[in-house]
Amino acid sequence: MRVAGPLLPEIVIAGITANGLAVMGSYMYGCCPSLFMRSMTPCDASCPLAATAVVLAACLLAAGCTGQAPGGNTAVPGAEPNGTAWNLLSYEQNGSMTDVLEGTTVTLIFGRNDTLSGSAGCNAYSAGYLIDGTGIAVGPAISTLMYCEKPGVMEQESAYLRLLGTATSFAIEGDDTLTLADQNGTAILVFERAVPPEPKPLVGTNWTLESFRTGDLAGPVIAGTTVTGSAGCNRYFGSYHVSGASLSIDRVVSTEMACTGPSGIMVQEHTYLNALADVMGYAIEGDRLVLLDERGVRVLTFDAAD
């Protein structure tokens, strides 16, 4: 539903929503879209994340990922990566381990909803994953499509994402080193534990859109567009319901002005507002908010505004 004309003054006042309408943001006006949530009366409805495990489970069985993980006797018994964050130290290249490029950071964050994410050095990425004993299966990754000019960064990123998808077992050694191995038991990715920043609260934080998904691809926000209280071109608002890691957003309405630039602004706005209706869950990774669809795939990624 879209509402033509200016916003009613009792609906949005200085960034605070009223009458039970609790999601508001601005989109496409200056630099990056944003989202603000305030507290609402708890609701009984929950929106559990749909399972994304069918294909990954088949991968685990096919790859035989339940054998002994790399690391031998130094592995921590029963240790699982769920809910942990790691920084890449080295990766396999031409039969030997290569250190990450100086000045680059490649991260791996295991969410508690069978979704992993992080930075591949240039682009943000996410993928589904499954753990079975010391076996691991990682689904196809989606990422933003930025290009970084520093020599070797894009090649390193490509190698990392490719290797991540071939991992079949893992070992956590001494609680501070994570090793992913391929089906031959050969180490392909080695990480050190990262201490992520304290997660920002979902409610009461202003979130600025970093990227959004269109089809199977995730792309950055159009340069020169923003959302900070108006949709950049249009203001929007709606209601939300939270239950555990489940989140749904509905009854989103907006004004119906038309903006002529920058190029693609109205397409981006339409895509963003439609994506809000697909949200079924969320994860907060430090100062980053990820909104997920029913398959656990990220559809919108926000950074906490300063």
- The number of distinct β-strands equals 21
Which parts are unreliable, with pLDDT below 50 for 5 consecutive residues or more?
Answer: 1-32, 40-69, 216-222, 224-228
Shape summary: globular
Question: Which architecture name of the largest domain does CATH use?
Answer: Beta Barrel
Helix-strand string: EEEEHEEEEEEEHEEEEEEEHEEE
Q: What is the CATH third-level topology name of the largest domain? A: Lipocalin
In the CATH scheme, the class of the largest domain would be Mainly Beta
Sheet with the most strands, sense and barrel status:
10 strands, antiparallel
Task: Quote the distance from N terminus to C terminus.
Answer: 31 Å
- Count of DSSP H/I helices: 3
- Mean pLDDT over all positions: 73
Please give the radius of gyration in angstroms.
21 Å
What class, by secondary structure content? Answer: mainly beta
Q: What percentage of amino acids are in beta strands?
A: 35-45%
Supply the number of structural domains: 2
- What portion of residues is helical? 10-25%
